[in-house]
Amino acid sequence: MMSLMHAYLRPQDADTLFTDGQWIEAMLRFESALAQSQAECGVIPEAAAEAIAQACATVEIDAQALAARAHCSGAMGMAILQPVQQWLRSHRPEGLDWLHWGSTTQDVVDTAHALLTRQALQSLLAELQGLQQGLVALAERHAATPMLARSLMQPAQVTSFGFKCAQSAAALQRSRAQLQALAAQALCVQLGGAVGNRATLGAAAAAVEQALARRLGLQACGYSWHTQRDAWLRLAMEVAVCGGSLAKLAKDWSLMSQYEVGELHEAPRGSTSSAMPHKRNPVHCMQAVAQTQPVPQLAATLLACMAQAHERGLGEWQAEVAHAATLWRHVHAAAAALRSAAQGLQVDSARMQQHLDGLQGVVYSEALAQVLAPVLGKPAAQAAVAECAAQALALAQPLHLLLGQWLQQQHGTVEPQLALALAAAADPQQAVQASAQGCRDLLAMIHTTTAKEPAHAHP
C-alpha cells in the first residue's frame, strides 16, 4: 500500500493499477484459462479443466498469506497454486493432477503481468488522450498569441503559446502511437514451461498457446520470453520516454507560472500555503514534476534486469516484476496531473506581450539584421544590430528606431522603404507568424493522425 507521502501526489484513482487483488485475479485467470485451453486442444480431460476453472473462480486467497508463502518459496507462482490445490483436493480431486500442466511459475506471473499491463496501458492512454485534447484546444486558441521564446533560459525570439502547446501535443501523439504499436508485440502470453522449450506440451504447444491467448485477449508470440525481455522492455522504455515528455511540459508550465513571469496560472483551488495566503502554487505541475523524477532511474533499473542468466533469472526478473508497475504508476499519475492542469489553465496573453515589449525589440535582432544585410552586408549588419541592441536595453528605446538613427548618422539618410521594413521586422504580429503556421501544421498532422486511428485506439 502506498504511504501518505505518495498519496497526495497521485490522482484519486491511482490505486486501480497493479493492485494485490488484481494480481491474484490475473494469476488465477491464467490457471483457469490454461486448463480450459488444454482441454480444448485435447491435452487434459475436460472434467479436469472444469474442476480447475471452478477452483480458480471459487478459492479465496488472502494477499498477506500469499506474500508470506511466496517469501518462503521464492516463487509467487507456487504460492498462488497452493490454495487452489487444497481446494481441488477437498472438492474436485479430478483436477488436481492437471493443474498447471506443462507450465511453470514464471508463466503464471508473466502472463498475469501482461494482463495488468494491458489495463495500465488503457488507463495511461486515456490520460494522455485527455491531456492531448486539452493541449490541442489551447493550441487552437493561442496559435498566434505572441510570447517570448527562451533558449538556455534567456530571451531568444518570438514564438506563440499555441505552438508550444502543439509541440507537446504532437509528442504525446507519437508516444500514444508507439505505446500501441509496441503493446501489440509485448502483451503476449508466456507459456514456455520449465526451461522455455514447452517440452511437456510437445506438439500441442502452439495450439494451446493460441487458445490461451484468445481466452485472455493477449497475443501469441510463438516463443518463450522468460529471459529474452526485449519486446517487453521496449514497451516499458516508451512509457519512460513518455514520462520525459510529460516532465518537459510540467517544467515549462511551472516556469511560466512563476510570479516574476506570470504568463500562466493553474485554476484557483483555495489556499495552497500554510504561511502565505497570497500564494497560488501550481499544484498539478508540482505533482507531475514529482511523479516524473524517479522515471529515469526506474527505466535504468528495468534495463539492468535484462541480463538474466540462462533460462531463468536469479533476482533480475524478480526485480523487474517488482519495479515495472511503479514506472507505469508514476507516468500515469504525471499524465493525470497535467490533464487536470490543462483543463483549468489560465493564459495571460497580456503578460506575454509585456515581456516582449520590455525587451525593446532585441528579440527581433535576427530579422532586423536580415533587413540591413542587403544594404550593409551581413557581418556589418549583425555588428550594427549588436551595438544598437545594447543601447536599446540601456536607454529603454525600441531597437528598430535606434537602428534608423544609426543609419542616419552613418549614411546621412534612411530610405523610407528601409525604415518601413525595419518597423515591420519589429512587429510582434509579423514575428509570430512562423510559429502560428508551425502550430497550424502540427494541429493538422495531429487531426489527420487521430482520424486514422482505429476505434480501439481511443480508450
Give a topology summary.
Layout: H1 4-7, H2 20-40, H3 46-58, H4 63-73, H5 76-91, H6 105-141, E1 146-151, E2 154-160, H7 161-186, H8 205-216, H9 230-257, E3 264-265, H10 283-292, H11 295-304, H12 316-343, E4 346-347, H13 349-358, H14 365-376, H15 378-395, H16 399-411, H17 416-425, H18 428-431, H19 433-452
Antiparallel strand pairs: 1-2, 3-4
Helix pairs in contact: 2-3, 2-6, 2-8, 3-5, 4-5, 6-7, 6-12, 7-9, 7-19, 9-10, 9-11, 9-12, 10-12, 11-12, 14-15, 14-17, 15-16, 16-17
Low-confidence stretches: 271-277
Major sheet: 2 strands, antiparallel
Average pLDDT rating: 94
Question: For the largest beta sheet, what order do the strands appear in spatially?
Answer: 1-2
Report helical residue fraction: 55-70%
Q: Mind telling me the CATH class of the largest domain?
A: Mainly Alpha
Number of domains: 2
Q: Give the overall shape, derived from the CA principal axes.
A: elongated
| Superfamily (CATH H level) name of the largest domain | Fumarase/aspartase (Central domain)
Total strands: the figure is: 4
- Total number of helical segments? 19
From the N-terminal CA to the C-terminal CA, the straight-line distance is 27 Å
**What is the string of SSEs from the N terminus onward?**
HHHHHHEEHHHEHHHEHHHHHHH
| Percentage beta strand | under 5%
Which CATH architecture of the largest domain? Answer: Up-down Bundle
Structural Rg: 30 Å
Secondary-structure class: mainly alpha
> Which fold name is given in CATH as the topology of the largest domain?
Fumarase C, Chain A, domain 2
